[in-house]
Amino acid sequence: MPNVLVTGGSRGLGLGIVRKLAASGHSVLAIARKASEELTDTIAAASTAQAGSVRFVPFDLGDLEGIPALVRSLRKEFGPIHGLVNNAGISFEGALAMMPVPQIEQLVRINTVSPIVLTKFIVRSMMSDGGGRIVNISSVTAFTGFSGLSVYSATKASLVGFSRALAREAGRIGITVNCVAPGFVDTDMTRSLSDELRDKIVRRSALRRLAGVDDVADAVEFLLSDKAKNITGTVLTVDAGGTA
Fold this sequence. Notes:
Layout: E1 3-7, H1 12-23, E2 27-32, H2 37-48, E3 53-58, H3 67-78, E4 81-86, H4 101-129, E5 132-137, H5 150-171, E6 175-182, E7 185-186, H6 188-191, H7 195-204, E8 211-212, H8 213-224, E9 235-238
Parallel strand pairs: 1-2, 1-4, 2-3, 4-5, 5-6, 6-9, 7-8
Helix pairs in contact: 1-2, 1-8, 3-4, 4-5
């Protein structure tokens, strides 16, 4: 079973990706600061299923200096890493003029610098193995303006540029690099929105509905598979046509 590393894998979209990949036969290494009850249940379920596996790796991705040792330990314990899904991210909503500088720094550190540094050391590992798959989770906010999300949008847009340039660098050694850009996804977070705002989002989408976590996870699974071996440097948008 190929090893795939998923950051932010303890809840929400990351947990959905972990479940999807385990069900399709991958050996999933879920990174998060701490395990959630849902992740613990997922690990237990995967251990009894006739498919892949899930292991929890506790790590704070804000610790940039600890990332090289993390990658070394993962490779030593689990073997070659075939895929990396940079999903972990945070968001602070608010007008740029009023946002504290420490919040701006934290957003950029977790959403941009951390995945770049992690990818650097994973790519080194993939080079020695002759190939691999990298999927960066961006957002429709990378190319569509949303008031109050200027810094978050900047971090997600940076992942698109990073992916396209790295696809050129890493393609010659058999590594594909792509982005998945979810829109408003049907999760607990969007369910907490007011009915009026939620209805507005649905009306703006071409399909008159929200995409689900499984829809995004399906896109990630596809880009990690051999079916996507000739797809690299691209962005796959999953938003039920909200940006169509």
